[in-house]
Amino acid sequence: MQSRSIQPLPENPEPQRLADEILQALRYRLGKDTTVATPHDWLTASIKVVRDRIIDHWMKGTKETYEQQEKRVYYLSLEFLIGRLMRDAFCNLGLMEAMREALASLDVDIDLIARLEPDAALGNGGLGRLAACFMESMATLDIPAHGYGIRYVNGMFRQEIQDGWQVELPETWLDHGNPWEFERRERSFEVGFCGFVESPSDGEGDAPGRHIWKPTERVLAVAYDTPVVGWRANRVNTLRLWSGMPVDPILLDKFNAGDHIGALAESNKADALSRVLYPADSHQAGQELRLRQEYFFSSASLQDILQRHVSQYGEIASLPDKAAIHLNDTHPAVAVPELMRLLMDEHDMPFALAWDMTRRTFAYTNHTLLPEALESWPVPLFERLLPRHMQIVYAINAAVLLEARQGGHFNDQQIANISLIQENGERRLRMGNLAFVGSHSVNGVSMLHTELMKETVFADLHRLYPDRINNKTNGITPRRWLLQCNPGLTTLAREAIGDAFLDDIAAIRALDPLADDATFREKFAAVKRQNKERLARLVAERLGIRIDPAALFDVQIKRIHEYKRQLLNILEAVALYDQIRSHPERDWVPRVKFLGGKAAPSYHNAKLIIKLANDVARVVNRDPAVRGLLKIVFVPNYNVSAAEILIPAADLSEQISTAGMEASGTGNMKFALNGALTIGTLDGANVEIREHVGPENIFIFGLTADEVAERRKGDAQSRATIEGSRELSQAIAAVSSGVFSPDDPSRYRELMNGLYQHDWFMVAADFEAYAAAQRDVDAKWRDSAAWYASAVRNVARVGWFSSDRTIREYAKDIWNVPV
After folding, report:
1. Which of the residues bear the PTM N6-(pyridoxal phosphate)lysine (predicted)?
2. Whole-number percent of the chain with pLDDT over 90
């Protein structure tokens, strides 16, 4: 397919004209004048002025898609970690400098008001950020697309650190409204729960006709649209988020009878659907709410898609040819039986035809091999909330298992593995299997992850459908993760190699020869130093910790989880702390370790690891014997905006997950594109990053995925491993005995004992290799020319890890849309 041409940036208006428009927006849309306008008012007025220009592109693209009957992509994701949108939109429209001048003429600092824009609390980590990058790339590549999710009022919690512990607070990102969004009250759909199913009968027990589901609970899903601007305004696509509203806001009869709580019960239930991202599922109420959320947004999205399709084409049969619906992980997997229900019960389609259309329409991306993340629901819970869908799931399961049996190549255990219903123990509905069988394409997100999918969680389904699994290695948008977050490096690259990489990030490869140019390396180092100084100022202002920008900045920022092994990082820091104090005569490399990330509220060990990081930091940072050679900083409330400051300042990128457990990662790509060297295992996309940057420009250590699997099969070796490592055993002893927790000496005893007992995440097994790799880091850091040569080569060689490349592959291989 021919690539669509990149359009020139729209003609920029004069700054004076923009300034006039900002004043008009301030007066006529916000009811303020310059004497009383707050910084938030200036922010909103500026966004409104640019949003008006976006609308023209938005409507033009929508009209062209309709007139040309182009196939649309619909991306269903429970998370969209979009971050602040102002710089993204201004940059992609080519208006950043003109807006800067316009606001300066009004005595307003654009950087100051930009910092006031809240991060939309619509995601947790890599899954949601990937969805945001994909939306921007689809608009950049001129692919007509809608993203569908939930408009969480509070979303992911705001993290505060109190006495070293994580405290979860509501993220009130909508306090000042959201000037980017448009409420579409007319685009509202009724979503039902519970109730019963009426089945027509022919008198002999069969039910050939349409089934009628009569829910006893109903809510409204109301659409809120946010425009997503592509680079050079190639296209503006739509992120449509659903907000829950009651069908009947208040039951007046109950209210007037004095039952004020009961009168608002329906309103409260609807509100809960779009209140918080990932309610704690350690109890039944949390599990039920999460399933309700997943069905709520999946059903509303499918109703919207089908209504749009029928309105344009007058029939439903062409749906697979005109709509590609993509399931981002298992959260929207309930969309499979929901589409079947709509086709059969609302459009009178027989099961076989509906099943064929469903599979041709859906595609599914798997993001994890972790059993707890491959969602499953207790059958009684699913059947109570969605009785008609349970019937459809059983019908789908029967069709799939009969297909497997008829092939004659599967034994009973393999049939059980293929089944949508887990029968051993509590009967549960496997959402990963449901998404797999209901899609024509199932993709992993790195080469290693895709191969492991075939060998582990979907091994028997892969045997049944050997052509279904394919790989699409993740990518990141270079607009957000280079042009916007690292303007110094962007300017340096433009001066050195021209502007071609702005439109095609692969062209940044032209920087590669400059890794051997001493003058360029000095300029590159100066940009890195400026980014580090910015981060150092921020840490001093917010946390009161003074750090030296000349030190090596060692950064691990990601969701706190045992498989991501923040614990390995902390234990190595404890060992390093002991070594620095014991051997002050050695030439130690000054190092600042940054950690950041949120732990799920019900994940005890993850929250304990956060506390440990802060306890160790408190002791190390205050110890004069360390002489400032090691400092540890835990960055609270890690989010997209924090990442945009931390990543350009990083020298070393920690990607140290247990091999075989990280599907891909995208932080590893962002760090490399900004000139950080990776220390990591051969896990996820690290494998492919090493291939692109070269093994001499990355620090790889530890067990491979195969070696981890073999070690887990064998007898416990962790005690011998720990006792065989003096540094590790001393570090564990110090933590376990209360050196870092004098107020509660036993606080970490159980956590440390776990390393002796099973070491499932290979913290002890990989410690010596990790510590040795860190000393290799020290050696390379001492050779400044070698370090920055490798840093430049990382920037130059990771253009392939662009979400533009990933989306082109999706478009060609999965969605069948031109690009």
Report:
1. 670
2. 88
